[in-house]
Amino acid sequence: MTMHAPSPTTTAPAEPKDTAARVTPMMEQYLEIKAANPGLLLFYRMGDFYELFFEDAETASRALGIMLTKRGKHQGEDIPMCGVPVERSDDYLHRLIALGHRVAVCEQMEDPAEAKKRGAKSVVRRDVVRLVTPGTLTEDNLLDAKANNYLMAIARVRASSGDDRLGLAWIDISTSEFTITECSAGELSTTLARVSPNEIVVPDAIFGDETLGPILREHTAVTPLTRDVFDSANAEQRLCAYFAVATMDGLATLSRLEATAAAAAVTYVERTQVGKHPPLSPPARELAGTTLVIDPATRANLELTRTLAGERRGSLLDAIDLTVTAAGSRLLAQRLAAPLTDIAAITRRHDAVAAFVADPAAADDLRAILREAPDMSRALARLSVGRGGPRDLAGLRDGIVAADAAIARLQRMESPPQEIAAALESLRKPSRALAEELSRALAEQLPLSKRDGGFVRERYDTTLDETRSLRDASRLVVASMQARYADDTGVKALKIRHNNVLGYFVEVTAQHGDKLMSAPLNATFIHRQTLAGQVRFTTSELGEIEARIANAGDRALGLELEIFERLVAQTVAIGDDLRAAAHAFSVLDVATSLARLAMDENYVRPEVDGSLAFSIEGGRHPVVERALKRDGQPFIANTCDLSPAPTQTSGQIWILTGPNMAGKSTFLRQNALIALLAQIGSFVPAKRAKIGVIDRLFSRVGAADDLARGRSTFMVEMVETAAILNQAGERALVILDEIGRGTATFDGLSIAWASIEHLHDANKCRALFATHYHELTALSAKLPRLFNATVRVKEWHGDVVFLHEVLPGAADRSYGIQVAKLAGLPPAVIARAKTVLAKLEAQDRGNGAQALIDDLPLFAVTSRASDNEQAPSPEASALIEALNAIQPDELTPREALDALYALKAKLTS
């Protein structure tokens, strides 16, 4: 759902005029806090529960599937109410956030006993301590360990020409990443698909824009904000205040538009964290043209990180992800989302993978070390905003120890390449003194929460040890008291127990309860509670001991918390060094995992250069091959060469024909995926690969409608095809499957025909074009960069056998009836289809594709501007026909003059 910030009147009931008379103090407090946080569900702390009221309760009960009850009345109406236990609140928060909701967490800021001191009707002081939104999460149980959690802010500057510019800033506060860029309004959907933000904040004007609004509303969580958050006048000032610097010049070079988006992002982070200040890396500027542009349709068609069903399993990322750390998996996903176009950067990544392929022992040793390394960046982020615990400190300690082990192993490599050498230097940065301090301070067994105590090692702090001894000695006194009370009463089963409600109490079975309530024991034992099988008492002596234990326990916990905060401060102080080491771990994890992938799956290093080459020898589909391997079946490798011929300057276009199920779509996709893998810095599934850098990747494969926007399957196909024909350039790679199949045969053939000509003459790109229109193969006779290829099959006793081999040539039939037979169509339908096909083929015989080619003049494109030209009028067509009928070499001078007068007469008539 899209989250819009409505006015308070739509989320909290208006207070009556006689508030004091008709609203309880607690409800008055609730309404005040709710009004201050419009557009969010309010988790209102009531003892051991977070309770929700009014519309919030109704929304939460539907979303969480919990019971909706009522609590009191407001303006004469029952107040809807539901609640979730505090100890399980994270589970409920996770479900609400996944649905796009935002939640304000309101805590009790004082003990109820303190409130009672102000009067019997005084309300416990409460306040919102945090706004939980999809893009500002830090807790492990709310995050996907293998995916970034981005908050994106979008700012806009209007242009008189209509070509508005957008500034985009995205932040992951769980890892401190901060990136900025600019793009045109037309590039917004592509950038959103690449970054995949979990939450987007925009000005109200953009959210309501007739062009940008629909694009934004396709995303789960979009939060419109007021104009002041996107005020460009004080944007740099807000950024300087956040980073505690006098000027941003030393941190990043930002345009005014980028600074506006960045300031909006950090302002929203500050508001949601309510007083906390998550540390962020300086904004990293992403320059245009540095990454391979992949539009949303292509990302979906190629199933890069998610399948069309929305699952990670079965995607390219799932097939190649052999990382052993969560941070490594996140970095691999980032690289897959944004392949590089910088040849030098691609080469550095290939060098790193090649170094570990050449030294498998080093790769395996490092992977073993990395398995023990924690997610340092997220542990540090939690500690920085006060949500970390002792285990996060231990994780950072273990990370520094793992860094030392990794350094020792990397130093044994001879001349490590640049990327590995840079990681080695980053691993040296964190202070080893901090690791030693944490080792001395932290106990072996650590609780999840610092409030549980017991995480400081004995003999680390003398005062803490003395306080613990006093607390423990008091507990020994309780044990001694239990034995004495048992002797005094003659009740051997007497026990002294403790719970959070009664504190310490004496408990006996029901049959002995009367004895303790009778003289003379009733002078010592004071009755507290009677249960079905037990009776509970207290004594004045036990109350005194309990006070001593509580005081000693509180004092011990207070000392531990002081130690914890001191250790956190020391850790946060070297946060930049720890983050650098964490990034180095992820870089090494990706490099070693891609090396292991290459060794296990027989991948090779591709050659990537600045040419227009595209030569794949023995290429394989990484996902399909993995699936077949699990079933014990081989994958049939195929070759593809779209490189320019020796006499040509642009890449080739292959027309691929063959029956359904033969593997045409697999062949198309595998070549696109091989190119993509090469440009993320991975080895590729092939015998040999040479690829000239691709700047844009387009895919039109598969069929799907878009009913929400009123688009049929064919309309979606045409929209995607239009994007390709309008945007693809010479360095693009285009894969097209079955263009024109969603309409009448001649319409579809005409569209496919014209599209091929446009790709050849206007786009001049490298392309693979799969089709069942066999007439298109005749175009290769007149389009020099067109090459025909077909998928080999055999027909055996009326059935078709798929060989999955791609060879030069053209298919003469599609074997559709044989495929239909394999699918299980009734025999009567198959037989009838064969009869109809035979008649249709007999009628069509003699009207071959070559005749069609000869009848149609070759389509030529001189410029993109010609796309807008109107078709010739009937009069102009008649003039053109008359002109074409003239044979100049056969005319006498007199006949030529007469023909000229005739043409002029047609023109003026």
Mean pLDDT: 87
Number of strands: 27
Largest sheet entry: 7 strands, mixed
Structural class: alpha/beta
Q: How widely separated are the two ends?
A: 63 Å
How many separate helices?
32
Biggest sheet, spatial arrangement of strands: 13-23-24-25-21-26-27
Tell me what you see in this structure.
The chain is of the alpha/beta class. It contains 32 helices and 27 strands. The strands form 5 sheets. It has a 7-stranded mixed β-sheet, sandwiched between helices. Strands 3-4-2-1-5-6 form a 6-stranded mixed β-sheet, sandwiched between helices. A hairpin with a 3-residue loop joins strand 14 and strand 15 (503-509). The longest helix is centred in the middle third of the chain and has 34 residues, at 540-573. The radius of gyration is 36 Å and the shape is elongated. The relative contact order is 0.06.
Element layout with pairings:
Elements: H1 19-22, H2 25-35, E1 41-46, E2 49-53, H3 54-64, E3 69-74, E4 77-85, H4 89-98, E5 103-108, H5 112-117, E6 126-132, E7 151-157, E8 165-172, E9 177-184, H6 188-195, E10 199-203, H7 204-207, H8 212-217, E11 222-225, H9 235-243, H10 256-273, E12 284-285, E13 293-294, H11 296-302, H12 316-320, H13 326-337, H14 343-358, H15 360-371, H16 376-384, H17 390-410, H18 418-427, H19 432-441, H20 462-489, E14 495-499, E15 503-509, H21 510-516, E16 526-530, E17 534-538, H22 540-573, H23 575-601, E18 607-609, E19 614-619, H24 622-630, E20 638-641, E21 653-657, H25 664-680, E22 688-692, E23 696-700, H26 713-727, E24 733-737, H27 745-763, E25 766-770, E26 786-796, E27 799-808, H28 816-823, H29 827-844, H30 849-855, H31 874-885, H32 893-908
Parallel strand pairs: 1-5, 7-10, 9-12, 10-11, 13-23, 18-22, 21-25, 21-26, 23-24, 24-25
Antiparallel strand pairs: 1-2, 2-4, 3-4, 5-6, 7-8, 8-9, 14-15, 15-17, 16-17, 19-20, 19-22, 26-27
Helix pairs in contact: 9-10, 13-23, 14-23, 15-17, 15-23, 16-17, 17-19, 17-23, 18-23, 20-22, 26-27, 28-29
